[in-house]
Every structure is written in structure tokens, then in C-alpha cells.
What we know:
Keywords: Membrane, Transmembrane, Transmembrane helix. The termini are far apart. By secondary structure, the chain is an alpha/beta fold. It has helices at residues 2-16, 18-25, 29-61, 106-115, 155-165, 185-200, 210-216, and strands spanning 75-79, 95-100, 120-126, 140-146, 166-177, 221-228, 238-245. It has a single domain (3-245), classed as Rossmann fold (3-Layer(aba) Sandwich), CATH 3.40.50.150.
Amino acid sequence: MTEASILLLRACLALLAMPIYLLSFLGIWEPFCKKIFFPFFLEKLSVIHERKSKKQKQELFRNLIDFKSPSGELKLLEIGTGCGANFQFYPAGCKVTCTDISPNFQQGLSRSMNKNQHVHYEHFLVAAGEDLHQVPSGSVDAVVCTLVLCSVRDVNGTLKEVLRVLRPGGAFFFLEHVAADRSSWRYFWQQVCYPTWKLVFDGCCLTREIWKNLEQANFSDLNIQHTTVALPWTPIEPHIVGYAVK
């Protein structure tokens, strides 16, 4: 009964989003989404998400300073920088390399850089999380990834790259929306929304159990907390937050 209900409700949602499905079929939606809609949407969402998750981020990134290199520098790599919503939380003087699979966030990113001049910006690399070959192995003290692992093509491949670029003793900091408890109504609605949400929001997956990928990766220490970010009427309230040490 539940599976039938999910399929029926998915079909209803697809009917509501039929113009987008049609544009996708014609090959128009994806380039429009990547270049215009998703950068615009993400910048607006970042403002709301930032307000709702500010305390969690302050608590999380407070530990960044503990992972300075022996020389006293903090070299940080951010995967999926987007519009630079995390810059305000980074310690003064840290050296940041920004990466994103899309070069279409430059306008919002430039605004964030101008607002946060306490950070030294080293590079911007167009790169997928699963392929950071432009970044030398063992070259960074910390890697940051927020609201990105939901849409990478390969979560395990991304975590392998994180481990590769981190120096021994470096840390991976994350805040990600994840699947709800499988017995909950929230998970039911995540399953209903999944196909249309993924199409509309550039590959964002609602039902990934990312904590399992982190547990199976070869980190020496994993600090993880399941939490909720108050985003009413959205399927992305359940989150995980924490850091993992190489």
C-alpha cells in the first residue's frame, strides 16, 4: 500500500511539474538550471539555511583552528563552495582554495569574498568532488563540505579524494541534509518528492544515508551528530553535522 501511495503521489507531483519535465525532455532545462535557476535558487536558500543553521555552524567551525599545520598556517579546501556561505565562519588568516563543479556562482561568490576579507583566497578550481586532481595529495589541513554530498555523483569517491588531499591529522568538516528515519512520515514524503526534486534542483538526492558512507570511509576518528535544521514544508530538515580526522 505504501509503495502504491508513493508512486501515485509521485505521479501527481510530476503532473504539477510537467512544464519542467517537458523542458528536460527537450534538453532545455538542464543548461538553464545549471546556469541561471540553480545559482539563483541556491543563493536565496543559503540565506535562509544560514539563518537556521548558524548555531550549528558556529559550533562546528569553532574547531577549525585546532587543525592548523605545525607551521601555524591553516590551509582549507572547500568542496562545492557555491556562493561562499561558510566564509564568515573561517578563522582570520586561513588560506582557502574554493572548488565547485559549476563556474556559474561567481557573482554570489564575489560578494561573499568582499564581505569576508579576513580570509585569504588562494584559488578557485572548477572541479567535481570525485576528481580533485588539481589539488596535491596531503596538501591541506582541513576540507569543508556543506550541502554538497547530496548531489555529488559518487559519495564514496568524494570521500576518497577528501582523504587523499588531507594531510595526516587533518580533518573533514561537514553539514549535510540526509534521509529521515525510514519509519517516519518525513521519509515517506522524501520518497514522494525524490524524482521531481532531483530534476528541479540539479541532482540533489533526498534519501542518501551519508552517515553510512562516512562510517565506512577510512577516517581514524569520526565525530557525527544527527540534527534538524528548521526548514518547514521542505523535505531537507534532517541533517548530520560533524568532522572526521584522517
